């Protein structure tokens, strides 16, 4: 139950930051987003990605792209968002696979 409350708080804080950006209150939005980013590990991966991209957008809006370096470094980590990025393709049944081409026969030269 406490975990659910934390998730709700993260969503609420993200929405507050988004509203601040829309109202052009960039300083307040940046404060909220940096606070969320500093504690991003326990946040749901989908929300964490949204936080990162909004923070990057804010850095660009404020003409401070160098401030987004830490966020980009985090986004580039191979396992940063493992629950969203892992492939979950079901294996195809053998009957649906295309027949494999066998090596050319010796007489087909």
Strand content: under 5%
Overall structural class, as computed from helix and strand content, comes to mainly alpha
Shape: flat
Number of helices: 5
Major β-sheet annotation: none
Helices and strands, in N-to-C order?
HHHHH
Task: State the separation between the terminal residues, measured CA to CA.
Answer: 71 Å
Give the strand tally.
0
Mean pLDDT: 80
Helix content range of the residues, please?
A: 55-70%
- Oligomeric state of the chains present here: single chain
Map the helices and strands.
Blueprint: H1 2-22, H2 26-38, H3 45-61, H4 69-76, H5 82-85
How is this structure best summarized?
This protein is mostly helical.
Task: Please give a structural write-up.
The structure is a single chain. By secondary structure, this protein is mainly α. It contains five helices and no strands. The N and C termini lie far apart (71 Å).
Key features of this structure:
109 residues; mainly alpha; 5 helices; 58% helix
